Amino acid sequence: MPENEKNNETNLDREWMIRDCDIYSDEYSDCTSIKARFHQYFVFGTTLDCSQWKRDCDNCWKWVKNKDYKAAKELIKSECNRHLERLRNHYANDVWEKRSSPPEDWEKPLPEHMIQEYEHSFLHLKAKEMRGDIPSESVSKYCSIM
Description:
The structure is a single chain. The chain is 64% helix and 0% strand. It is mainly alpha-helical. The relative contact order is 0.08.
C-alpha cells in the first residue's frame, strides 16, 4: 500500500460518522420534494438550499466505490457541521443551569400513588412474567390488538 494511502487511512478517525449513501440520497430527495418545498416556504418563508445533501451523497458514493479519501474527509466535515448546528441551541442555552452530578435524592422511592398505579400496569405484569413469578398465559390476556 502506498505511503500516502496509509496516512489518509489514519486521518479518518471519524469514519463512523459516514452514513449509508442511500440515506444521503433520501435526504436530498426529501428536501427537494414538492411537499418539503411547501413546508419550507410555510415555516421559513423561503425554500432551503438542498445542495449540501447532494454533495454529501456524491461524496459518499465516491468514498464507497473508489475509496476517495478527500471525499470522505469532506463528508465527515459536513457531518460534524450538521452535528454542531443541531446542538447549537443546546450549547447557547443560558436559561438552565447544567448539572455536573445528579441531585442528592435522585434514588428516593416513588410516591405511594405511583407505586399503586404501577402494580396494576401491563409493564409490572410483564416484568413479573420475565422474572418467572407468573405464567406467560396470564399476561397475554391483557394485550389486545385493535
